């Protein structure tokens, strides 16, 4: 693929610009490894993550379903620096439930794209809404952004928390409080 060769050449130029010798032993295969890694980091573009939720079951359950601490890794679209953390994903079914692992796969699919945390949070909630039509959906993501921790303001212990709240979670404080209580460690 011609694009791979172009990217590898650009990375060789970048290594030289940074002050290292792209021909030295440790760096000779780095451009290829970099391209391979980025294709893995962005594998979410090669799927529609909400389709993981297609498998549903008719289960008479109208109480909270919460999948906690779903680890994810993503790439900041502004700096191509990693950000990573956990997603807390909950919904109150309305006739349909999905497999618990499907929720984690869906999170992974959206995370494996160039992202901002705010969009990632919204995409997860909107996928649940569109595929399951639940009574309510709530997503909370907590993440560390290397673009903020290791460069720029260099605040290494900083975490960012985002949420997306729909349906009964938006209307009923008690439902929202139950979710928030359950996600606390």
Automatic annotation (TrEMBL):
PROSITE patterns from the UniProt entry: GTP_CYCLOHYDROL_1_1, GTP_CYCLOHYDROL_1_2
Enzyme Commission designation: 3.5.4.16
Keywords associated with the record: GTP-binding, Hydrolase, Metal-binding, Nucleotide-binding, One-carbon metabolism, Zinc
Class in the EC hierarchy, top level: hydrolase
Pfam families: GTP_cyclohydroI
Positions contributing to Zn(2+) binding: 76, 79, 147
Catalysed reaction equations from the record: GTP + H2O = 7,8-dihydroneopterin 3'-triphosphate + formate + H(+)
InterPro entries: GTP-CH-I_C/QueF, GTP-CH-I_N, GTP_CycHdrlase_I, GTP_CycHdrlase_I_CS, GTP_CycHdrlase_I_dom
Pathway note: Cofactor biosynthesis; 7,8-dihydroneopterin triphosphate biosynthesis; 7,8-dihydroneopterin triphosphate from GTP: step 1/1
Family per record: Belongs to the GTP cyclohydrolase I family.
Subunit field text: Homopolymer.
Record-given protein name: GTP cyclohydrolase 1
Organism of this sequence: Enterococcus lemanii
Gene (name only): folE
């Amino acid at each position: 693929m011609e694009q791979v060769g172009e990217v590898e050449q650009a990375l060789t130029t970048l290594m030289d610009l940074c002050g290292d010798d792209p021909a030295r032993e440790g760096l000779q295969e780095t451009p290829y490894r970099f391209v391979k890694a980025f294709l893995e980091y962005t594998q979410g573009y090669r799927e529609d993550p909400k389709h993981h939720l297609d498998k549903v079951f008719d289960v008479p359950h109208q109480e909270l379903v919460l999948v906690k601490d779903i680890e994810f890794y993503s790439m900041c679209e502004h700096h191509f620096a990693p950000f990573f953390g956990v997603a807390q994903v909950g919904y109150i079914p309305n006739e349909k439930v999905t497999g618990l692992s499907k929720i984690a796969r869906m999170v992974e699919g959206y995370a494996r794209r160039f992202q901002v945390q705010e969009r990632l949070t919204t995409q997860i909630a909107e996928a649940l809404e569109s595929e399951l039509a639940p009574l309510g959906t709530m997503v909370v993501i907590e993440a560390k952004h290397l673009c903020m921790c290791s460069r720029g303001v260099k605040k290494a212990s900083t975490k960012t928390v985002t949420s997306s709240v729909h349906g009964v979670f938006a209307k009923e404080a008690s439902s929202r409080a139950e979710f928030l209580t359950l996600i606390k460690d």
